[in-house]
C-alpha cells in the first residue's frame, strides 16, 4: 500500500521542473490526438510556432494579441487574490468597450488628446460598474459570484448584439449589421508598429506588483484572500476593500475593451472580447497571479492562438485546437500541484528503511 | 394570445426545459456527494458533439445518446481524477473543464457546422402522444405529447428522487456530501461515492448536451449550449437540491429561453435581442433572491466543495 504525506517545502527548481513536465505532458497528449487525426504532431507544433513567430509581421500580430491577455489577466488576477472568482472579464471587457465606443461615436469632433483619455475613462467606468454588480451582491447577500459574473457575460453579449443589430447599426453599411467605424480622432496612435495601449502593459505589471507588495491596500487584499474572517476580526473594512478592488479589476478589463475597440478593431462588435476574458483566467492561474509570469504566459498563449489560426489554414485543423490545448495544459498543471504539495510513499520501502536502522 | 397559443408555448417550454432539467439533475446528484463541479457547460458540450458525431457515424439514436452520456462521464472523470485523486481546487478545475469541453466541441465540430442530424434520429424523436395521459385536456397536450427523451426525463427525475431519498446507496452518497468524516468512520467509501456521483452527473449532463444537438436544434452549431450549463448550476441552488423542484425551475427557464422567439409575432416594443437576455438576467435575480433568504444556505450539502483527505483527519 502507498501512503500520501504532505511535502513541507518544495524547492523552486523542483516546482518549475514539475510544471514544465506537466506542460510537456499536455503537448504530448494533444500530440497523440493530432496523430489520431492523421497529422504529424511535430509538423503541426512547428508550424504553430512559425505562425506565431515566423516573421516580423506575425510577431507583431502576436504582440498585439498579448496585450489584452496580459491586461485582463492582471485585472481579474486582482479579484482572484481575494478568492473572489470573477469569471466576468468577458462581460467587463464588452461593457468597457461599449461605453468607450459611446464616447468615441458621439464626441468625435473633440481633439484626440481629450477624446482618447475620455474614452479610456469611460471604458474603465463601464467595466468597473459591471464588476461592481456581482461584488455588491456578494458582499451584501453572499450571492455566488461565479455564476453571477458568468451570467452577466451573457447579458453583456446580448446587449452588444442589440447595439450592433439595432440601436447603433450603421445604416450606410449596405445592410451589413455593423456599428460605424471610429473616426481617426478616436483611434489609438501607433508606437513601434503597435498601438499605444502596449505601454499600459509594463505600467500595470510594475504598478500592480508595487501595489500588492508594498501598499496597505495591497496587504489587505492579500489578507482577505488568505482568510476573510481574519481580515474582519483585524478590523479591516472587508466589504469596502472587495468593492474597491472589483471596481479596479473590472475597470482594467473595461480599458482592455476600449483598447480593442480604438486600437485593433476600430469598431465595436460582438467579437470585441472573443474569449479573452476566459483565456485570461487560465493565464492568471497558470502564472500563480505573479505579474511577471502573467506577462510571459500571456505571450506564450498569444503565440498559441496566432499559431492556432495559422495551422487552421495550413492543416485545416480548427482553431479551437488552441483552446483545447490550453484546457489540457491547465488540467495537467492543476494535477501536477499534487506532486508539489504531497509525496507518495510506498509502505514496503519505509519498512526496509526501518529495518536498516535496526 | 389565446389559450391555444399558451398551450403551444408551454409545450415548447417543456422541450426547451428538458436539457436544462437533465443538466440540473446531473449537477444536483454531483453536488449531493460534495463535489462542486462547475464544468457542466463543458460536459454538455462534450456530450453534444460526441452524441452528434456518433449519430452521424452510426445513424443509430441509441448509440448517439450512449455516446453523449459517455462523453459526459469522460469529462466528469477528468474532473474527478484531478480534484479527488490529485486534490486540486474544485472551482478552478470545473472552470477548466468548461473551457476544455468548449474547445473540444469546437475542435471536433468546426468542420461539420451546419450539418443536420441524421433523418433516422430526427424521425425517432418526433412528438408521440401518450395514450390516456395524452388525452387529458391542456395538461396532456403540454406534457404528454412530446418526444421519447422528454418521457425518459420524467422517469429520470423520479429515479433520481428515489435514489437520493429512498435507496441505501443514495443515502450513503448524501452522507458523504454532508459529512465525509462521519461517512468514512461508518465504512462508506468517500472517494468511491464521489466518483460514482460524478459519473452519474456527467452522464446526465452529456445527455443534456446530446438532446440539444440531436433533437432540439437538430444540427451542429457553434456555441450551442449558450450558458445553459451555468443556468443549471444556478437551478441546483434554486431547487434547494431537490430533484422535483429542479424540474419546476427548469420548466420556467425553458419558457424564458423561447419567450423572445415566441413573442416575435406580437410586434412588441422590446427587441428580441434584449428578450434573449431574459434567462440570464432571471438567473441573476433568482440567485439574489435566494441568497437574500439567508436560511437557504442550509440546504446545500454541508461538505460541498470541500475536499476530503483521510490522513489529515
For this structure, the quaternary state is heterodimer
**Count of the domains of chain B:** 1
Q: What order do the strands of the largest sheet of chain A run in, or round the barrel if closed?
A: 1-4
Which class of the largest domain in chain A in CATH terms? Mainly Alpha
> Could you name the CATH topology of the largest domain in chain A?
ABC transporter involved in vitamin B12 uptake, BtuC
Average pLDDT level of chain B: 90
Number of helices of chain B: 14
CATH architecture label name of the largest domain in chain A: Orthogonal Bundle
**Count of DSSP E strands of chain B?**
2
The number of strands of chain A is 4
- Percent of sequence in beta strands of chain B: under 5%
Q: Supply Rg of chain A.
A: 23 Å
Q: What is the N-to-C order of secondary-structure elements of chain B (H for helix, E for strand)?
A: HHHHHEHEHHHHHHHH
Described by the principal axes of the CA atoms, the overall outline of chain A is globular
Q: Biggest sheet of chain B, open or closed, and with what strands and sense?
A: 2 strands, antiparallel
Secondary-structure element string of chain A = EHHHHHHEEHHHHHHHEH
pLDDT < 50 runs, ≥5 residues of chain B: none
The N- and C-terminal alpha carbons of chain A lie at a distance of 22 Å
Helix share, percent of chain A: over 70%
Structural class of chain B: mainly alpha
Radius of gyration of chain B: 19 Å
Element layout with pairings:
The complex is a heterodimer of chains A (358) and B (313).
Chain A: E1 2-6, H1 12-36, H2 41-53, H3 56-80, H4 89-106, H5 112-141, H6 145-167, E2 190-191, E3 194-195, H7 200-214, H8 216-226, H9 228-233, H10 238-265, H11 276-286, H12 291-315, H13 320-341, E4 342-346, H14 347-357
Antiparallel strand pairs in A: 1-4, 2-3
Helix pairs in contact in A: 1-13, 2-3, 2-12, 3-7, 3-10, 3-11, 3-12, 4-5, 4-6, 4-10, 4-11, 5-6, 5-10, 7-8, 8-10, 11-12, 11-13, 12-13
Chain B: H1 3-32, H2 40-58, H3 61-85, H4 90-109, H5 119-124, E1 128-129, H6 139-143, E2 145-146, H7 148-166, H8 168-178, H9 180-185, H10 190-216, H11 228-238, H12 243-263, H13 272-275, H14 278-292
Helix pairs in contact in B: 1-7, 1-10, 1-11, 1-12, 2-3, 2-4, 2-10, 2-11, 3-4, 3-10, 7-8, 8-10, 11-12, 11-14, 12-14
